[in-house]
Amino acid sequence: MKIFGIETSCDETAAAVVEDGFEILSNEIASQVEIHARYGGIVPEVASRQHILAIIPIIQQALDKANTGWQELDGIAVTNGPGLAGSLLVGVSVAKAIATGQGLSMIGVNHLEAHIYANWLGKNEPEFPLLCLIVSGGHSDLVLMRGHGDYTVLGRTRDDAAGEAFDKAARILGLGYPGGPAIDREAAKGNPCIDLPRSWLKGTNDFSFSGVKTALFRLVETDKINNTADAAASFQEAVIDVLVTKTIAAAKQHRTKQILLSGGVAANRRLRQRLSDESPVPVLIPQPMLCTDNAAMVAACGYFRLQAGKTDGMDMDVIAGLKLV
Ligand code: KG4
Ligand code: ZN
After folding, report:
1. Taking the model in full, what pTM does it have?
2. How much distance in Å is there from the Cα of 322 to the middle of ligand 2?
3. How far is the CA of 162 from the centre of ligand 1 (A)?
4. Beta strand pairing status for 283-284 and 258-262?
5. Total structural domains in the chain?
6. In terms of domains, do 38 and 57 share one?
7. Which of 62, 82, 166, 272 lies 20 to 30 Å from 235 when distance is taken between CA atoms?
8. 203 is in which domain, residue-wise?
9. Ligand 1 pocket: which of 88, 236, 265 to mutate (most atoms <8 Å of CB)?
10. Which residues have CB under 8 Å from 156's CB, separation 6+?
11. How far is the CA of 36 from the centre of ligand 2 (A)?
């Protein structure tokens, strides 16, 4: 079964074809990073306009790379939230037009669920019950998954998401945008020797990253940082210490068989290494380019939803604040 995926929730216009929920036939991305870099962050209005320019060419590219025509496809999956409303609308409108014109089933996909399903790509065999740590620009969620589509949110961030914290720390350190990859690179050249606070929020599965960011800001403001690489490494370590420790504790508490890591921050090399090294249960992590926003993960998720008979009608709306459950 072949599913076409469309992703436009934020600043990447992406289209993909995935077979049977795991085999990537094409996975095309038109990135807007350079356009937003000059503003130091994503400008929603600019993002929507760029999606309009990029969506049709990227869809054609995904079909061509997969050597597939619409008649060979079984459904079209599209992210309908959470994300920027104007950006989401571009993908959803195009998906509706194609589904109507080509007589295809349409499946609205939650962007966070799609991040989780990136772990099914490449024929991994996740085993339930499992614990997912979703760390992206907008979310840091710990989710217990007992089966396909069966989610219990155990904890989430109370303030900044992990990716947001990385982006802000990079800005504080003058490392530019996008911040996560910049901190990752800079940290590799330094040592985590600067003492920064960790917010444990004991007795909960929640996270908080605004304190460590403010502590870094105070050190920079008072000229106490003389080595940017050490500062980046120390910040990264503080965030990762909390993510890894709390994820492993939740996996033990709920006796999960595996831990799945997903979302843009899952591309971070230190996080990948520490979670894999320290977890008592197997850890699955998608390859870095499948951690950040892409449409293959949307198609993979759409496959499992279609298998469960869950399709959407033309009244499907975009929901900027869509929740996992
Ligand atoms: O999942 P994603 O591509 O978009 C959202 O759904 O938000 O995640 C983007 C986030 C950004 O905050 C970016 O800085 C972060 O993921 N990120 C990283 C790395 N690559 C991307 N954070 C830390 N290390 C990385 N290597
Ligand atoms: Zn994302």
Report:
1. 0.97
2. 13
3. 8
4. parallel
5. 2
6. yes
7. 82
8. 128-285
9. 265
10. 139, 140, 141, 142, 206, 207
11. 16
